[in-house]
Write a structure and sequence with these properties.
Number of helices: 8
Strand order of the largest sheet: 1-2
Distance between the termini: 110 Å
Largest sheet: 2 strands, antiparallel
Radius of gyration: 57 Å
Oligomer: single chain
Helix content: over 70%
Mean pLDDT: 78
Low-confidence stretches: 259-269
Structural class: mainly alpha
Strand content: under 5%
């Protein structure tokens, strides 16, 4: 489908270019950008997240190579530092020897004795000259080594900072990718929920059915209760009096009044 869209769009642009002439290049460029954007919009988000996760994971070999380069440079800088320390120790000793010879010559003597051997003043001067020349060369070499070591140490520190920043950025990207994955899942859940359309009429019918069942059960209960009352049996006792006066007197256990008293009370009222 994508191929068909691209071919169709480019064909239309080519036809338009024949008519327009010199503006063909801009039309082709604009059309390509639009087609590319359309194709990009059709790519599923899940696929884009997987692609981002792979790009973050592809940083691992680069980080590994950087770690190897830094480790190698650390070893070389450490070896260079050791050489500088040895050269500095030798330089200090050579300087002490030169100062000793120089001090001896300043005494003005003609003969000097060192380690059981006797040397003339001229021989001592020649030896001092050779020692001093070598010392100056070694001292310049030592200074160059220290400058080179310092420069490499600065580069090493910068490489360490870059590696740390790269590893931190990779971890941050990994977190962001997982956050995007979680957001995508939430969007999918929300979209799935929005697709659930409830039919109000179906809900109303369900409620009415429940009401009908409840009514039917109530009627059945009343009929079952009515069946327990037997009205066709012979009445053995006299029916109770419906006179309200008698009912009140019976309830409160009052003695029945005489007829004359009832009449007098009525007359007085």
């Amino acid at each position: 489908m994508f191929k068909k869209i691209i071919i169709t769009s480019l064909a239309m642009l080519l036809v338009g270019g024949v008519v327009i002439g010199s503006g063909l290049k801009s039309y082709v460029s604009t059309g390509y950008e639009r087609v590319a954007e359309s194709v990009k919009d059709t790519v599923p988000t899940e696929f884009q997240i997987d692609r981002a996760r792979k790009m973050v994971r592809d940083l691992d070999p680069e980080i590994r190579r950087s770690m190897e380069v830094i480790a190698k440079e650390e070893v070389e800088v450490a070896e260079l530092t050791r050489r500088i320390e040895d050269a500095r120790t030798k330089s200090d000793k050579d300087k002490g020897d030169i100062m000793r010879l120089q001090a001896d010559l300043q005494t003005g003597r003609n003969v000097f004795r060192y380690a059981g051997n006797t040397y003339s003043a001229e021989e001592v001067k020649d030896d001092l000259s050779r020692r001093f020349t070598r010392f100056k060369t070694a001292d310049a070499t030592l200074e160059s080594l220290e400058k080179m070591r310092d420069a490499r140490q600065r580069n090493l520190d910068a490489a360490r900072q870059k590696l740390t920043a790269m590893m931190s950025a990779q971890r941050q990207l990994q977190v962001e990718v997982e956050n995007l994955q979680a957001k995508l899942k939430l969007v999918e859940v929300a979209e799935a929920s929005s697709d659930l359309q409830f039919d109000d009429s179906q809900l109303a019918r369900a409620k009415q059915l429940m009401a009908d069942i409840r009514t039917k059960l109530d009627v059945a209960a009343k009929l079952a209760n009515a069946d327990t009352n037997y009205h066709d049996e012979i009445q053995l006792d006299e029916p109770s009096s419906d006179n309200i006066v008698d009912q009140v007197a019976e309830y409160f256990e009052l003695s029945p009044p005489h007829v004359g008293e009832i009449a007098t009370a009525s007359y007085q009222e």
